[in-house]
Design brief:
mainly alpha; single chain; about 75% helix
Length: about 270
């Protein structure tokens, strides 16, 4: 009962927070983010974490096992990092991207692909917790970087169209968004690299993989190369602004594809 109540309340808070972010961005009153909005996201993230802990205890499944809990954890970590880093990187408006992402993944982790209760392969490995943790933190940071990139493209378009009121006044400056996107991407990339390397080592212990598994793994490598290309192009070729933003969004699109393939994956034999 308490688990279900936490799930519903968390989803409701994410939904209300998203609506409030939209009202703030497209409204005609305040130009600074209401203090209650980050607080609402904080409360939702705390309830989200409690839901994960209690549900995992209830069904006796470690949150790093399977694929549904990690997806939920990733969205919760995204909200936590948003609250922790929003002032440092001045990305308050990114909450309009973070909250629907959290809501969608929370619901998907419960209802898509058989949900959390669906059977799935469980692997006993000392490297698994580190592999999963690094990947989840990487996804959370890439989500924030992609939110910054998306806001950059919106802000740039409004600037070119000389629409300098309303939404333009509520979004950060282009330089701020570009810098935030780069720093978040730079922080998340080593985590993704560790996740890729540890995942490759871990895969050698698994039985023969299916075609779907191989395709999913291939998309994972493509994701790494996409983000690496963005960072390298910025350092060597001086990519800034629009090019970097589109590159980051392209890399994140592959991240979403990998997550969806994991989410839709159904059970399999346990690995030894």
């Amino acid at each position: 009962m308490w688990v279900e109540a936490l799930f519903v309340l968390t989803a409701l808070l994410y939904a209300v927070a998203f609506v409030r972010f939209v009202v703030f961005l497209f409204g005609r009153t305040a130009t600074t983010l209401p203090a209650s909005l980050p607080l609402m996201v904080t409360v939702a993230a705390v309830l989200h974490a409690l839901h994960i802990v209690l549900f995992s205890l209830l069904i006796k499944v470690c949150p790093v096992e399977g694929v549904h809990f990690p997806l939920s954890v990733a969205s919760m970590l995204t909200c936590v990092l948003y609250v922790a880093l929003r002032r440092r990187y001045r990305i308050d408006a990114a909450g309009a991207v973070v909250t629907p992402f959290a809501l969608t993944t929370l619901l998907a982790s419960r209802f898509v692909g058989g949900g959390i209760l669906a059977p799935g392969p469980r692997v006993r490995s000392a490297i698994l917790p580190f592999h999963v943790t690094m990947n989840l933190l990487g996804v959370a940071l890439f989500t924030l970087a992609s939110a910054s990139a998306l806001l950059y493209l919106v802000q740039e378009r409004r600037l070119k169209e000389k629409r300098l009121t309303g939404l333009f006044q509520r979004l950060p400056a282009l330089d701020t968004l570009d810098r935030a996107e780069h720093r978040l991407l730079l922080t998340g990339f080593p985590m993704l690299t560790f996740g890729i390397v540890s995942g490759t080592v871990w895969a050698t212990r698994l039985p023969m993989q299916s075609v779907t598994d191989l395709i999913r793994d291939s998309f994972g490598y493509v994701t790494w190369f996409m983000f690496a290309a963005v960072l390298l192009s910025r350092a060597v070729l001086g990519w800034r602004g629009r090019k970097a933003a589109w590159g980051t969004l392209a890399g994140f699109a592959f991240t979403i594809v990998v997550l969806l393939m994991y989410l839709l994956r159904r059970g399999g034999p346990p690995a030894s």
